[in-house]
Amino acid sequence: MDELTLVERLRSEVPGDLDVAAAERRWRDRALAAPARARRRRARRPLLLSGVAAAACAGVAATVVATYQPADPPPPPAAVAALLDQAADRAGADPVPRPDQFVYQDLIELRRTAGKGRWYQDRNQSWVSVDGSRTGLVRLKNSIEAGPDEGVPPDGDSVLKPCGQVPPIERPYLGDVPADPDALLRLLVTEGDGPRAARQWEAATDLIDRPAPPAVRAALFRAIGRIPGVRLASDSVDAAGRHGVAVTRTRDGVREELIFDTATHRFLGTRDIVTRSSDQLGRRGSTLFSSALLRTTIVDGVPKPAPGAEVSNC
Question: pTM for the complete prediction?
Answer without folding.
Answer: 0.79
